[in-house]
Amino acid sequence: MIEIRNVSKTFNTSGGPVDALKNVNLSIEDGDIFGIIGMSGAGKSTLVRCINMLERPTEGQIMVDNVDLGSLSVKELRAQRHDITMIFQGFNLLMQKTCLKNVMFPLELQGVKKAEAKKKALELLDIVGLLDKAKAYPAQLSGGQQQRVAIARAMTTNPKVLLCDEATSALDPNTTNSILELIKDLNKRLGITVVVITHQMSVVESICRHVAILDHGVVVEQGAVEDVFAHPKSDAAKNLVFPEGKTQVLNVGNQAEHFIRVVYNGANAAGRPMIARLAIEKGIEANISYASTKGISGKAFGTILLSISGTDSDVKDAIEYLTQEPGIEAEEVQVNVC
Amino acid sequence: MFADLFNPETLQEAWEIICTEFPLALWETFYVTVLATAFAIIIGLPLGILVVVGEKGGVLPIPRWILSVVNFIINVMRSIPFLILMILVFPLTRALIGTTIGTVASIVPLVIAAFPFVARLVEGCLREVNPNIIEMAQSTGASPLQIICKVMLPESVPSLISNFTVAITTILGYSAMSGIIGGGGLGKIAINYGYYRYKYLVMFLAVIVLVILVQVFQTVGTRLAVNTDKRLKNQAGRRHRDQAE
Ligand SMILES: Nc1ncnc2c1ncn2[C@@H]1O[C@H](COP(=O)(O)OP(=O)(O)OP(=O)(O)O)[C@@H](O)[C@H]1O
Ligand SMILES: [Mg+2]
């Protein structure tokens, strides 16, 4: 279990101090896939670099299995880093070494015998599907393949935790998916705890179980992925859930007087056509101002913003009607129309 | 003065000098250059590494004043003209070799002149190593020494080779100059016959041999650097594929 306790990090730069992290508290269970999402500059990389002490927190503690990493000697910390490995946006392979040598690298550092290291490395190259590239050099591989080699390298020391800092940000959507599948598979098979840093909602949705939203160094929301994404409360979360939200609302919503936010929180995706039935059964016509819904394992998650030109009681009826359905919540919201 | 450059007598004389003196001179120039380069690398490489890893935020930070002193010494030594440096190191040469004159003795000033230069070249090479790869090594639990030996140096081998090639050709040039203070080799021949005895043909021939030697060093060095650079394999492979398509 990773516990991040009251962690703050301040960089002293020539332009004055920069508070990259402010009193961050998180706990990450063993075997979890935990997402940390936020806009550029939110402090995600800083946070993940604190977890393996590449960056020392200015304040607070990082506890991994009840060991305070800040209290370890340099040597003990290096040993810990065989348990907490990392993959990067830029893959960071040794360009002058073959893939096999790259995967053997962490074992070489530990002084493991060559034959043994080679055996383990080949095993891992096989797992990531690149056994045939063992003798190739990184420059001869595609980005996705390089990241697979990096994952294999990160797994050689049988780590407990895998930190992924924007590991798929340099890859196209298909390759991203295959890498995420690989990570998910490793998590399932080996029970390794995974911390995923990303600025992409889609990454969190496809593999994470828990998520924390980081905004300007502060954790503004955290919890199970469905909960956080179904009920985004903070502005940062809303921005992530509705990336282009505001403009869309403004364009369509000019004539409307009321807005209802409908939240799909695991409603049956193949359920009844709610909006149409609202018009037929209640005679209330609703416009969809904005919709962002996703199917996660056969259930619908997401938000629809309805605009209704009607009386207050129409709005009340509509909310009542919609909320009958299990897994759907609705509330009237204020949308600024300018 | 060049009028009688190619008359039969001069040619005959030059040919004799070439046959009797050039082989030894070539060998002397070669081994002086190679040995001086080797020693310059032995001293300059660690210094270059120190300057890079020792700085603040480096892999193995050292006290700032040590770093400043090292940098200062390197800068001062690089700014002393070689001719003057040769004379300045006479006491050191005498202490090490027992004499200040001769081919072997000329190695000392060459090394002293070249190692700060090599240190700067090494510094440049190591700074080119992708800092993200160093961070990867740190996050993998590598010690500073491991990062230097297993990451920084191996990753910069191709650029080290091409920079050492620059060093060896430069040292070759200096070694010719050391002919003035009694160093042997092609430089001595060029000066003795060309400058003191007006046998310009011999001087020109000595220069041509020096040019050829530089060419050989440069060609071998460049080829070695390209062949060891695994980042380029891709480009080669790609070109290949493009042509096939
Ligand atoms: N070494 C450093 N020195 C000074 N400031 C830093 C340093 N590292 C990060 N920062 C600052 O801390 C803040 C957070 O940076 P960080 O790299 O953690 O953001 P991020 O969320 O990872 O962003 P991105 O998505 O662009 O990678 C930024 O304002 C950045 O300028
Ligand atoms: Mg980052």
Describe the model.
The complex is a heterodimer of chains A (338) and B (245). With 338 residues, chain A is an alpha/beta fold. Chain A contains 12 helices and 14 strands. In chain A, helix 4 packs across helix 5 (143-155) and helix 11 packs across helix 12. The longest helix of chain A is centred in the middle third of the chain and has 18 residues, at 173-190. Chain B has a single domain (8-244), classed as MetI-like (MetI-like fold). Chain B is an all-alpha fold and 245 residues long. In chain B, 37% of the residues are buried. At the A-B interface, helix 2, strand 6 and helix 3 of A face helix 6, helix 7 and helix 11 of B. Magnesium ion binds at residues 44-45, 166 of chain A. Residues 44-45, 166 of chain A line the site of magnesium ion (MG).
Question: What is this structure, in a nutshell?
Answer:
By secondary structure, chain A is of the alpha/beta class. In chain A, 36% of the residues lie in helices and 31% in strands. The model of chain A has no long low-confidence stretch (mean pLDDT 88).
Poorly predicted parts of chain B: 236-245
Strand content of chain B: under 5%
Count of DSSP strands of chain B: 0
CATH class of chain B: Mainly Alpha
By CATH, the superfamily of chain B comes out as MetI-like
Chains forming the largest contact? A-B, 28 and 28 residues
| Head-to-tail CA distance between termini of chain A | 48 Å
CATH topology of the largest domain in chain A: Rossmann fold
Instruction: Give the cofactors and ligands.
Output: adenosine-5'-triphosphate, magnesium ion
Could you tell me the radius of gyration of chain B in angstroms? 22 Å
Mean pLDDT of chain A: 88
Characteristic key phrases:
heterodimer; A: 338 residues; alpha/beta; Rossmann fold; Alpha-Beta Plaits; 2 domains; six-stranded mixed beta sheet; four-stranded antiparallel beta sheet; 12 helices; 36% helix; elongated; B: 245 residues; mainly alpha; MetI-like fold; 11 helices; 78% helix; 0% strand; binds adenosine-5'-triphosphate; binds magnesium ion
